[in-house]
UniProtKB/TrEMBL annotation:
Organism expressing this protein natively: Lutispora saccharofermentans
Protein name: CoA transferase
Gene Ontology MF, one: transferase activity
Domain of life: Bacteria
Assigned keywords, A-Z: Transferase
PANTHER family reported in the protein's UniProt record: SUCCINATE--HYDROXYMETHYLGLUTARATE COA-TRANSFERASE
InterPro entries: CoA-transferase_III_domain (IPR050483), CoA-Trfase_fam_III (IPR003673), CoA-Trfase_III_dom3_sf (IPR044855), CoA-Trfase_III_dom_1_sf (IPR023606)
C-alpha cells in the first residue's frame, strides 16, 4: 500500500522532542526522514534514560521510521556536502535557537538560493521574531509562560505542569501541520517557504475557552482541579472501588445520567435543569451526585452509563492503558525490534487512513548507521571517499 507522504525527503536536524515529534509524524506517513546528528553524541535525547542495552528508550520512542547519518556542520567540507544534499530533499527541519543556522551560514535565505522549492521548518521556543526570539526555552518554560500551568492543578492549589510535555508535543503537531500546508502550496505553485513555529505561540493557541472566559468576565481563570469550568457534571466521582470520569456535556445527557444513577428527583429541581444553572449551583449539586456514585463499583457504573449513552471512563494508570482492549484493537501499542536494544513497545500511529495508512516499519536508528548509504544515494559518494572524509572528522 502506498503511503501519503511517500517520495517526500526530509532532512531532519531536530533533537529532543518538539522537532523529532513533527518529523516522526511525517515518517509514519511514509516520508523518508534523514536524521542528521552530531558525530559521537548525536541527538541530546540519546543521553536521556531509561536505557535498554545502552540505548535510550526516550530517543527510540520518538525516532522510529527514520534513518540516521552524522555530520559535523562546523567543518567547511561538511557545509558544502550539506548544501549539495539540500538540492535533493523537499524539507529541512530544525529546532535550534533562532540564529544558530545563520551562524553556520545555513539559514533559510542561503538554502532557498540553493533549492527554491525547499520547505524550511523551524520550531523554537519563541519563534524567529519578537523580543524573546533569541531566548532559550524548554517545555516547562513555555507551559509556565503560555498560561496552561495557571489553569492546571487542584482548586486553590499551586500552578501545575501538565504531566506530558505539552509545550513540546503541541509545537511538534503544529510544525507537522505547517510543513504539510507548505508542501500543498508548493504542489500548486512550485514555491517553497519557511515555516516558523514557536512553542509559546502554540501554548496560547490551545488555551481555548480560558481566553474567552477572561475576555468576557475580566477574571483570569484559575485551576479547577478535575472539574470542567463551565460544564456540570464533567469530572471524576468516587465509586465503591475507585474513581470514574463522567462527562454529561449537554442537557440531554444530564437527563440520561440522572435516570441511570437513580436520580430522577434531580430532574425536577429548577436550578439543575440547564447547564448554566447547574454550573451556578455546582457546590450544592455535586454532593447529591457524589453520594449516589458511591453505591456501585467503577465497572458497574461503566456498564450502566454505557447502556444509557453517557460518556464515562475509568482513570487508567499507564500500565492499564497498555492493556486496554480499545487501545490494542486500534494498534496503538506496537512492538518494534531494535538492532541493539531488542524488542520494545512504543505507541502506534494515531491517524487511521483508508487508502494511505501510516505504518511503523522500523525501530529508531543507531547513531549514524545510515551515513554511508545516504551519502551514496544523495551525493554519489563512494565507500572509500566516505572513509577518507570520516578521517577528517566530518562524520
Amino acid at each position: 500500500m502506498n503511503q501519503a507522504l511517500e517520495g517526500i525527503k526530509v532532512l531532519d536536524l531536530t533533537r529532543v522532542l518538539s522537532g523529532p515529534y513533527a518529523t516522526m509524524i511525517m515518517a509514519d506517513m511514509g516520508a523518508d526522514v534523514i536524521k542528521l546528528e552530531q558525530p559521537v553524541t548525536g541527538d541530546d535525547s540519546r543521553q536521556f534514560g531509561p536505557y535498554v542495552e545502552g540505548e535510550s528508550a526516550y530517543f527510540m520512542s520518538l525516532n522510529r521510521n527514520k534513518r540516521s547519518m552524522t555530520m559535523n556542520l562546523k567543518k567547511p567540507e561538511a557545509k558544502e556536502l550539506f548544501l549539495e544534499m539540500i538540492k535533493n530533499v523537499d524539507v529541512v527541519a530544525e529546532n535550534f535557537r533562532p540564529g544558530t543556522m545563520e551562524k553556520l551560514g545555513l539559514g533559510y535565505d542561503v538554502l532557498k538560493e540553493v533549492n527554491p522549492k525547499i520547505i524550511y521548518a523551524a520550531c523554537s521556543g519563541f519563534g524567529h521574531s519578537g523580543p524573546y526570539s533569541k531566548r532559550a526555552a524548554y517545555d516547562a518554560v513555555v507551559q509556565a509562560m503560555g498560561g496552561i500551568m495557571s489553569i492546571t492543578g487542584q482548586k486553590d492549589g499551586q500552578p501545575t505542569r501538565v504531566g506530558t510535555s505539552m509545550g513540546d508535543i503541541v509545537a511538534g503537531l503544529f510544525t507537522a501541520i505547517g510543513i504539510l500546508a507548505a508542501l500543498n502550496y508548493r504542489e500548486k505553485t512550485g514555491i517553497g517557504q519557511k515555516v516558523d513555529v514557536a512553542m509559546l505561540d502554540c501554548q496560547v493557541a490551545i488555551l481555548e475557552n480560558a481566553i474567552s472566559r477572561y475576555v468576557v468576565t475580566g477574571k483570569a481563570p484559575k485551576p479547577e482541579g478535575n472539574r470542567h469550568p463551565s460544564i456540570v457534571p464533567f469530572e471524576p466521582f468516587d465509586a465503591r472501588d475507585g474513581q470514574i470520569m463522567v462527562a454529561a456535556g449537554n442537557d440531554a445527557l444530564w437527563e440520561k445520567f440522572c435516570n441511570a444513577i437513580d436520580g430522577r428527583e434531580l430532574l425536577e429541581i429548577d436550578e439543575y435543569k440547564t447547564n448554566p444553572s447547574r454550573n451556578d449551583h455546582y457546590t450544592e449539586l455535586r454532593p447529591l451526585i457524589a453520594v449516589k456514585m458511591l453505591n456501585k463499583t467503577v465497572k458497574e457504573w461503566q456498564d450502566i452509563l454505557d447502556e444509557a449513552g453517557v460518556p464515562n471512563g475509568p482513570i487508567n494508570t499507564v500500565d492499564k492503558v497498555l492493556e486496554d482492549p480499545q487501545v490494542l484493537a486500534r494498534n496503538m501499542i506496537v512492538e518494534v525490534e531494535h538492532k541493539v536494544a531488542g524488542p520494545l513497545k512504543i505507541p502506534g500511529v494515531p491517524i487511521k487512513m483508508s487508502e494511505t495508512q501510516g505504518e511503523i516499519k522500523k525501530a529508531a536508528p543507531v547513531l549514524g548507521e545510515d551515513t554511508a548509504q545516504l551519502l551514496s544515494e544523495l551525493l554519489g559518494i563512494s565507500r572509500d571517499e566516505f572513509e577518507a572524509l570520516k578521517e577528517k572528522g566530518i562524520f
